[in-house]
Design a protein that fits this description.
Elements lengths: L1 H26 L1
C-alpha cells in the first residue's frame, strides 16, 4: 500500500515540475 502511495506521490511531483516549467516558459 505504501509503495502505491509512494509511486503516486512521485507522479504528482513530476506533474508539478512540468507545470512549473511550463509557467516559467510562459513568463519569458
Amino acid at each position: 500500500m505504501s509503495q502505491l502511495l509512494k509511486n503516486r506521490n512521485m507522479e504528482l511531483q513530476e506533474e508539478i515540475q512540468i507545470a512549473s516549467v511550463l509557467l516559467f516558459w510562459k513568463k519569458l
